[in-house]
Amino acid sequence: MRYAMREKLCNVAEQISKDSLLVDQQFSGRAAETFTNYSLFLPVPTHHPRAEAISQTRFTVGRFQADTLPQDGYLLLDANLKSTVIAKAISESAHYVEATEDTLKELSWLDNFIANNVPQTIASVIGVGGGILLNAAAYIAERQGSDFISVPTTILAAADSAIGGLVRINKI
Question: The whole model's pTM is what?
Answer without folding.
Answer: 0.66
